[in-house]
Amino acid sequence: MTPRISLLVASLHVVLYLALSLRVVLHRNAHKVGIGTGGDPALTRKIRVHGNFGEYVPLALLMLALLELAAVATTLLWTFGIVLLLARVLHAIGLGGSAGYSSGRFIGALLTFATLLAMAAVGIWRFAAGALLV
Q: Model's pTM, two decimal places?
C-alpha cells in the first residue's frame, strides 16, 4: 500500500516550508543579517514562524503516514491533512503579522494541537483494536 494521501499532504507542506524559508532568506539578504536577527523584530517573527513549522509539522506528517499505512479511513486522513495545512497557514499568517495575539495564530495553534491529539487518539485506538484481534 502506497501512502498516497500523506505523500500529497507532505508535498504541500514542503511547498509551504520552502515559502517560509524563502521569506527568511530574502529578509536576511535585504537587511544584510547573516546570523541571528540583528535586532530586527520582523525577522525575528519570520524566523519563529519558520521554526514553529519545523517543530510541529514533521511529527504530524509522520503520524499521518503511519495512520495511512495502518489503513485508517481515507476520510479521516484527508481531514487530518487538510486541517493541518490550514492550521499551519493560519498560524504563519497570524504570527507573521504580529508578535502578540492574533486570531490566525491562536486558531492555527489550536487546530495543530487538536489534529495532533486526534491523530494520536486514532493511532492508539487502531493499535488497541489490532491487539484485541490477536
A: 0.92
